[in-house]
TrEMBL record, chain A:
ABC transmembrane type-1 domain location: 20-210
GO cellular component annotations of the record: ATP-binding cassette (ABC) transporter complex
UniProt keyword list: Amino-acid transport, Cell membrane, Membrane, Transmembrane, Transmembrane helix, Transport
Signal peptide: none
Protein name from the UniProt record: ABC transporter, permease protein
Protein family per UniProt: Belongs to the binding-protein-dependent transport system permease family.
GO BP annotation list: amino acid transport
Domain of life: Bacteria
Topology class, membrane: Multi-pass membrane protein
Classification of source organism: Bacteria, Bacillati, Bacillota, Bacilli, Lactobacillales
UniProtKB/TrEMBL annotation, chain B:
Keywords, in A-Z order: ATP-binding, Nucleotide-binding, Transport
Domain of life, per lineage: Bacteria
Tagged with keyword ATP-binding: yes
Protein name listed in UniProt: ABC-type polar amino acid transport system, ATPase component
Lineage: Bacteria, Bacillati, Bacillota, Bacilli, Lactobacillales
Amino acid sequence: MQNFIDAYSWVNLRFLLEGLWVTIYVSAISVVLSFIIGSILGLIRYVKIKYLSMIVGFIIDLIRNLPLLLIIFFMYFGLPSTFGIRLNTVTAAIVALTVFESAMLAEIIRSGIQSIGVGQMEAARSNGLTYLQAMWYIILPQAFRNMVPPIVSQFVSLVKDSSLATIILLPELMYHSQIIYGQNTNYMIPMFVALAFLYFVICFLLSRLSKRLARRLH
Amino acid sequence: MSMIEFHDVNKYYGKFKALKNINLTIERGEVVTIIGPSGSGKSTLLRTINGLELISSGQLLVDNHDLADPKTDMNRIRKNVGMVFQHFNLYANKTILQNITLGPEKVLKVPHVKAAEDAERLLGLVGLLDQAHKLPSMLSGGQKQRIAIARALAMHPKAILFDEPTSALDPEVIGDVLDVMKKVAEQGMTMIVVTHEMGFAKEVGNRLLFMADGEIREDSNDPREFFRAPQDERAQEFLGKILHVD
Ligand SMILES: Nc1ncnc2c1ncn2[C@@H]1O[C@H](COP(=O)(O)OP(=O)(O)OP(=O)(O)O)[C@@H](O)[C@H]1O
Ligand SMILES: [Mg+2]
């Protein structure tokens, strides 16, 4: 018990919260970027533009089948040695998470659009709407409504996956907790408890938010 | 000038020939019904008229525009040719009223208030004024199909295509939909209707096409006479079968 009281000292808690802040903003930036990029890639795959869709499809499949850890390593260690591009830890983490999550989201978005029956498109075109109007007014709103749950669970994984960036010493929540219990191994269990609590809270809030969003769309 | 003209039209799906040498002229105001066994190409023929399917060879003129000409604006053709589907295909994310006003507002650029007024008039015509603010999922099949007809009418088209509009409906509501179609026909609309409703073909239709194996095997200007004494032997066989079922 004393371990817990000591571990949760004011200084340690503040240090943890600093880590939490990095986790949140790295995740938030990656969420926004990967949503934009993933939507574009998903649409390119859906509309089947000659060659382009094939190439995009290949890259997406490649990325989806690599471990995220490898992508993080590559952005941090691989880019400087192969292309001479040196990224700081925060940028490397954001780029790696964005690349990985964009590929995951692209597939969610493509299959979400595909799940809307062809009848809706045929009706809209027969009604005189252009392809783009049909997509914008009829197909995408319905697809998006269906996509909210899988997209959110992907974002929840993103928040959790950001902890992998501890490996390149990104000063996020996981890394900060390791520093704390690195100084005193008695703090290990209290830190695990704190981590579990904090990750749970962010992810839980995120999914509650999305449930509300989904209900408003219905 | 005719509404629709097919000249030696063929349609292939890969090697399979779905339409064979179609020659057909449909005048304004005609109510043409198309019957024939499954797979005979009825839907394919209908869907070439508004460009949902492209023809492989020959010439197809709709409202004097050549559909094979790359300069032809398909959206303009579709403004003038409505379509009603077997499975309704109402816009699931739009209310009944919005289903009807979307085309006029976005395609014809009719102001919202005017489009809504017109939609209410059409809802009155199909007897569903009280459903205006519901979503399609809350309506029965018969109601959905009447809304689909209203949606097509809202564009003030020159012709409407119907692909088995009553085949997915419970028998007791088929009459409601046929009544609406009859009203539309009485207003002088050009209609092309793929159907199994022989009553409609006889009473409302003024021309009947029998299709088999991608060909128009019989083209009759007297549907009653066709049902009494079909000339084509495939038509005799087909009528024999369905009359047995009845
Ligand atoms: N997209 C397609 N690809 C390949 N073959 C097709 C396609 N659409 C239709 N066909 C074939 O073309 C033929 C004609 O089809 P069509 O749908 O026009 O028949 P139909 O007369 O409307 O039949 P039904 O009464 O069953 O609706 C069928 O043999 C069908 O299998
Ligand atoms: Mg058919």
